[in-house]
Structure to design on (448 residues):
């Protein structure tokens, strides 16, 4: 049952006759579809009551400046409970560590530091593409995961620290996939409702006890030789929480970058003119495809801006349904007053479909990124996939680089025949990148 609160200064509120659960059942089934229906019925600002909380959505540009800059909103309070549910970090430890760890990650993964990772990541990607052989058939999403997961983990955590051998990786992938698929629900609901997810979390935390011990045992004294995990452990207050933060770092490094790499490849391969342009660019930098392994540096990537545009355009089209902050003092958005205690949800997914900023918003158009000043690390107006203000994703430049590097190596080595129609994005994910609804099988063989 949908109905509007009587207070005219409050946004329309959607709830149900079940007191605590509210609209959780309808909302949880397909969040993006639910939001689309709510936008059509109630306008761009509305509240959903679910699981004992009020979630107020802002789906157009009015309110974005307040969302990113207002002191009446708080990011840490919005995500603290989710982090506690997801990786069992208590509130006190979260507030104690968040600022320090965020600053460390932001510095280590800044544009000026990417060269530290590029060479290692390039070698790792080559190594993990090798088992694909000279030809084969498979779901593109699986192919991306099997190459990128071990390569990125070895780059950020240190080679051999996490399970990346073929014998160990299958069990790990099963547990991590179970953990990732229900992460969104588990971050909001009591663990007792999600028994399989709880099992995967316990298994992964147990694994990370060993991962952290290995990282500490091999932790070098020279700063330049440390992995990102070792930097995290050096800065962490409460060393017993190393496995918890290690798991959080693993999830953050994989959960969004892998599906975006899949979508970037999918969009390029499904638009012949775009694929042709990408291959021309690769040939102009590396020579004709099909040569031996190529070395790709940060400087080389700068010569391939079109592939970066393709990556950013895929991110625009498959951005999260919502990013969140907690209202700590009442705040005015449009003609509504949002009360303290609400979770304010800004929707990148819908903002990126505003034709005022993105003409033909549903079309994959990499050329629109010509207008962005990417040399100065500036995105297009109203592009908010990584957040904004002082709490932007600290790993955003690494994520763009890793996807760009993977696409370069994959398309330079292999040519593809598409065996399925391009899948639609799943409406099930609100917080993370949109996943494909169906398999996307491809036939691949080495370029001649």
């Amino acid at each position: 049952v949908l109905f509007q609160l009587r207070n005219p200064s409050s946004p329309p509120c959607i709830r149900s006759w079940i007191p605590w659960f509210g609209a959780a059942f309808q909302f949880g089934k397909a969040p993006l579809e639910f939001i689309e229906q709510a936008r059509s019925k109630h306008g761009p600002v509305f509240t959903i009551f679910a699981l004992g909380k009020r979630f107020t959505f802002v789906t157009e540009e009015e309110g974005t400046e307040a969302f990113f800059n207002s002191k009446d909103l708080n990011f840490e309070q919005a995500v603290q409970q989710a982090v506690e549910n997801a990786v069992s970090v208590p509130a006190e430890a979260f507030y104690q560590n968040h600022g320090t760890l965020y600053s460390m990650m932001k510095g280590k993964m800044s544009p000026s530091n990417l060269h530290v990772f590029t060479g290692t990541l390039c070698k790792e990607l080559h190594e993990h593409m090798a088992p694909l052989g000279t030809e084969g058939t498979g779901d593109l999403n699986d192919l991306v995961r099997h190459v990128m997961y071990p390569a990125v983990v070895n780059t950020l955590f240190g080679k051999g620290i996490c399970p990346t051998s073929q014998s160990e990786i299958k069990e790990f992938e099963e547990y991590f996939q179970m953990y990732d698929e229900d992460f969104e629900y588990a971050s909001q609901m009591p663990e007792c409702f999600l028994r399989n997810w709880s099992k995967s979390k316990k298994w992964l935390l147990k694994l990370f006890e060993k991962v952290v011990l290995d990282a500490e045992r091999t932790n070098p004294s020279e700063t330049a030789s440390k992995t990102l995990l070792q930097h995290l452990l050096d800065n962490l207050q409460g060393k017993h929480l190393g496995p918890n933060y290690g798991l959080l770092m693993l999830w953050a490094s994989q959960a969004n970058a892998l599906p975006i790499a899949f979508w970037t490849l999918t969009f390029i391969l499904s638009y012949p003119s775009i694929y042709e342009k990408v291959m021309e660019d690769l040939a102009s930098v590396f020579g004709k495809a099909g040569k031996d392994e190529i070395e790709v540096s940060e400087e080389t990537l700068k010569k391939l801006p079109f592939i970066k545009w393709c990556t950013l355009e895929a991110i625009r089209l498959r951005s999260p349904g919502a990013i969140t902050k907690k209202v700590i003092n009442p705040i005015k958005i449009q003609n509504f007053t949002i009360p303290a205690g609400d979770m304010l949800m800004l929707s990148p997914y819908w903002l990126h479909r505003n034709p005022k900023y993105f003409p033909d918003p549903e079309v994959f158009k990499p050329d629109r990124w010509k207008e962005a000043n990417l040399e100065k690390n500036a995105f297009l107006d109203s592009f908010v996939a990584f957040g904004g203000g002082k709490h932007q994703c600290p790993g955003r430049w690494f994520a763009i680089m890793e996807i760009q590097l993977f696409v370069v190596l994959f398309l330079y080595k292999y040519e593809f025949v598409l065996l399925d129609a391009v899948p639609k994005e799943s409406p099930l994910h609100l917080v993370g990148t949109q996943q494909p609804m169906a398999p996307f099988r491809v036939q691949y063989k080495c370029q001649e």
